[in-house]
Amino acid sequence: MEPVDQTPVYQTEALIAEDILAYLDKHQHKTMLRFITCGSVDDGKSTLIGRLLYDSKMIFEDQLAALEADSKRVGTQGAEIDFALLVDGLAAEREQGITIDVAYRFFSTEKRKFIVADTPGHEQYTRNMVTGASTADLAVILIDARKGVLTQTRRHSYLAHLIGIRHIVLAVNKMDLVDYSQARFDEIVAEYREFAASIGIAEFVAMPISGFKGDNITAPSPNTPWYSGPSLVEHLETVEVDTATDQARPFRMPVQWVNRPNLDFRGFSGLIAGGTVEPGDAVRVLPSGKTSTVSRIVTLDGDLDSAVAGQSVTICLADEVDCSRGDVIATADQPPQAADQFEATIVWMDDDAMLVGRSYWLKLGTQTVSVTVQQPKYTVNVNTLEHLACKTLELNAIGVAEIATDKPLVFEPYADSRTLGGFILIDKITNRTVGAGMLHFALRRAQNVHWQATDITREVHASLKNQKPKVLWFTGLSGSGKSTIANEVEKRLNLMNRHTFLLDGDNVRHGLNRDLGFTEADRIENIRRVGEVAKLMADAGLIVLTAFISPFRAEREMVRKMLPEGEFVEIFVDTPLEVAEARDVKGLYKKARSGVLKNFTGIDSPYEPPEDPDIRVNTVEMTPEEAAEHIVRQLMPLK
Amino acid sequence: MTRTLTHIERLEAEAIHIMREVVTQAEKPVMLYSVGKDSAVMLHLARKAFFPSPPPFPLLHVDTTWKFQDMYKLRDTMARESGMELLVYQNPEAADRGINPFDHGPLHTDMWKTEGLKQALDLYGFDAAFGGARRDEEKSRAKERIFSFRTASHGWDPKNQRPELWNLYNARKNKGESIRVFPISNWTELDIWQYIQLNNVPIVPLYFAKVRPTFEWEGQLFMADDIARLEKVLGYRPEITNRSIRFRTLGCFPLTGAVESTASTLPEVIQETLLTTTSERQGRVIDKDAGGAGMEKKKQEGYF
Fold first, then answer.
1. Which class does domain A337-447 fall in?
2. Where, in this chain's numbering, is GTP bound (chain A) (predicted)?
């Protein structure tokens, strides 16, 4: 084995010392490449990154001294420097010798500045890999030359391709441990090529390296005379970056903020997602479709003659058109579309599985809308790439599903635009980012189903009955007294000549919802259907009473949003679990406690009490009749 | 017309995008302003992000009363020029107890800065605070998100961070939570210097070498910024010598070591910075306590 010349080929230091202004001018004009490194545990990711930082002189003397001391104390490389210690940041990681989260590192060469996302190889942290990949132009897939293509290699390659990374580098690492064998290298590349082709990766660049010894990192290695390709750094310096590609697309700028310091100025601030723009360009504001002309591109440094994808600017339009955060300003003759139903790939990132039918926030560009996800068409086994049937998506699962938003979304397929096609999903209660997704296309059905306008409106129905429609939504634990109290309330309303209808949980489950069980997903669908029926009845002018446990806040909120403001009345039948369980009118608590009955609310399935109910009744202090009286008084007047 | 953006242009566009996202999603944002060079760049970016409007949030200086005189001067000038409200907060408990860097060591940073910051954020009810931390500064910063959530008691949980994809930031917070936002996360020290040079961003003169009164204390070189006060706290008058010095980083004057230098212009400072063989924070005492995990521990306790 020949010693590798580890001296970087860069003359950076000499230039800094001799002519700092020339150096600064050079540095100022560097471009930027963002890339990720991924591989399994022990493939040598941290060592490789440590090596890149070291070779580009990003390590200071004091850090190097600390590193040498640490290498002796806790290093895994014997007497030699353990580069991995440079990048394993958190105390928790140093103790366990693992990387637990995405870390970002920086180094630069004479031509480029680099941002590296260091992503862990552990299966449970796939969401971090997707996170790191989402902003990367290139992925370095590391393979341990001794181990070859592993399950994790497939998973990471699939994810990198899924997230749209166009440049893949297959770095066959630890070549020093296989005697720089060309045969071994060729074998691994052949195996990877077959796999890559099967998932649609058309091109990749393979190189034999040793992060530890420095082979083919900054310069061709004498140990691999049979390899004639570029060194890793050489390749990273010359590959095309994505912002260049984005500029070739039609102009799009999602509006972040309306800039209005006084009555004489109104500008629209945003980061240009695609194309270029100049004053005089004809533009269209989406989703309204109104057209105007760009009058100015305003910055602190003076107005610009033009701006390109990747720049943050403020644009003024020649006409007073309606435009606010969430709208997209685009080239007038090639605007993006708006739709409310899509097919998308979703990567689930939360410990709590996705709930079909649950309403989440969807954030895409600067738009935030409510969205529900259908049962996935399939989930992908990333090891075998098989499509498997599934009911939901668990943590780290990837699936394809249809989604429906409550408002039209201005979008482009993810393949055309990361900005207008990539989205995150946010849980409305916990506020966590629970998923990420990529839009494929809009479903035709959204454009073809129109509302049929009818002449007898809901106002006509209501006035004929001389009442204001309402939905009295009783929620509470099983055995809290919902049905009993709702029945009492309906009797009182009936005496007052009101037109009412009582939808009872048990009764509905005998008919409309008899295909549903008691899993979280089925409970959500149960409530969605009841909400829709209640809404139709309210449209018909009725006062609807519903008695359902309806354990989740999100679904009660969903029903509230289906109805006009003020028509949904949430009534919390507040009975402590001990009291309801002691009553156990239907003997269900006993069954649940003994394990015969699964997913029973309050026992092994959660109940989320209303935080601010419209009406609350305490059934420990009130009889059902008193509770009903109290509710009716709160409801008056009914016209 | 297409053209390739430079890395500085891309970093600027990213920082501006982040600032605008915060302003449209947070209820009451604030920009932490420490008067150092990173703060100077942050303030300049904020002015660019919202021009011609002034940045729609105040500046908050969590003061330790031990900053350099030049820092107080620049702070007041910049607040006036930017048209932004300047809030200065000094932890009253630290003031009462006379906490200072000589007698109290790490407690000084804890009381004035960590506690002071928490108190100020709680007092004004800010739900999002911009900070100028960079990922290249320190290992635990490298793992922090751009939108970094803190519990009601301002703690950071590194294992429970939200995934941050593309440039989509989820700014929704639970009751009591607040967000620290780091728009210049992806900048390096050199990028900061270069940006200051390209945009003529005003910075504290202490970054440039000049003959100044100095004294040695516990093996490091310090500037004698307020000799009367120093004498009172130390209990003796340190031996003062005039030397040509400058600062690589600015904190409290007794906590920030000076370096002997003759670099008196920006290119010279950058040149010296690039050729130097010690990392930026070596002049600061804060990272060294608690072994290698100093900053990580401080952040979990609520330090910025």
1. mainly beta
2. 39-46, 118-122, 173-176
Residue A620 CA to chain centroid, in angstroms? 44
The residue among A240, A269, A281 with the most chain B CBs within 10 A of its CB, best to mutate, is A269
Q: Does domain A458-635 have CATH number 3.30.470.20?
A: no
Fold category of B7-200+293-300 in CATH:
Rossmann fold (3.40.50)
DSSP string, A423-488: EEEE-TTT--EEEEEEEEEE-HHHHH--PPP-SS-HHHHHHHTTS--EEEEEE--TTSSHHHHHHH
- The structure tokens listed for A67 are 């590193």
**Alpha helical stretches, state H, A61-139:** 61-74, 84-87, 91-96, 126-133
ipTM of the complex: 0.89
pLDDT per position as a tens digit, A149-203 = 988 888 889 989 999 998 999 999 999 999 999 999 999 999 999 999 988 898 9
The Cα-based distances of A25 to A22, A28, A606, B8, B11 in angstroms read 5, 5, 62, 12, 17
What does the pLDDT look like over B146-157, one tens digit per residue? 999 888 777 787
**Which residues of chain B does A113 touch, with a Cβ-Cβ cutoff of 8 Å?**
7, 188, 191
User: Which residues on B lie below 8 Å from A243 (Cβ)?
Assistant: 4-5, 10
Task: Note whether A337-447 and A458-635 share their fold.
Answer: no
Asked whether the beta carbons of residue B13 and residue A31 sit closer than 8 angstroms, the reply is no
Q: Give domain limits for chain A.
A: 12-242, 249-331, 337-447, 458-635
CA distance A225 to chain B (A): 35
CATH superfamily of this structure's domain A249-331 = Translation factors (2.40.30.10)
Considering the candidates A228, A292, A550, A594, report the single residue annotated as catalytic: A550
Give me B143's structure tokens.
Answer: 């793992």
The reply to whether residue B2 touches residue A276, judged by beta carbons under 8 angstroms, is yes
Q: Determine whether domain A12-242 maps to CATH 2.40.110.10.
A: no
Q: Do B278 and A60 touch (CB under 8 A)?
A: yes
